[in-house]
Design brief:
It is built from four helices and five strands; from the N terminus they run αββαβαββα. It is of the alpha+beta class and about 140 residues long. Bound molecules: tetrahydrodeoxyuridine (THU).
């Protein structure tokens, strides 16, 4: 897979940071923004959306991915996550599984309010994943 230029990853991280401002998180008060670099090269952003029925809360990563898919995208090349914390936040297990569906080789970058930053891959976060090929 082609490596993603640093400038593109910076734009992705910026989109995630902006998306966190839209977070609907009255229960956890933990605002998360995410952005996805899709197969077309377009960026789709999302935030976490909580619900009074707590189990229905949707993470920012999944909001961004579902928005991309609803726009016709089928591939996720990279995902950026932003939280206004001193340390970066990594995608939860459920989001790793959803990323795997569309981007098993996706790059992941987590950024926060400090200069701390984690750059990794979905492969490293979800080794030996169950995915579409298992159902063929
Ligand atoms: N959350 C995300 O949006 N993404 C993550 O990677 C971790 C957790 C959200 C879910 C919930 O709205 C809040 O953060 C606290 O768990």
């Amino acid at each position: 897979m082609k490596t993603i230029p640093a400038a593109t990853l910076r734009r992705l991280a910026q989109a995630a940071r902006a998306a966190a401002k839209k977070s609907y998180s009255p229960y956890s008060k933990f605002a998360v923004g995410a952005a996805v670099l899709a197969g077309s090269g377009k960026i789709y952003a999302g935030c976490n959306v909580e619900n009074a029925s707590y189990g229905l809360c949707n993470c920012a990563e999944r909001t961004a991915i579902f928005t991309a898919v609803a726009a016709g995208e089928k591939k996720v090349r990279a995902v950026a996550v932003f939280t206004a914390t001193p340390e970066p936040t990594m995608p939860c297990g459920a989001c790793r599984q959803v990323i795997n569906e569309f981007g098993p080789r996706a790059e992941i970058v987590s950024v926060c309010n400090s200069t701390r930053r984690i750059a990794t891959t979905l492969d490293a976060l979800l080794p030996a994943a169950f995915g579409p090929d298992d159902l063929r």
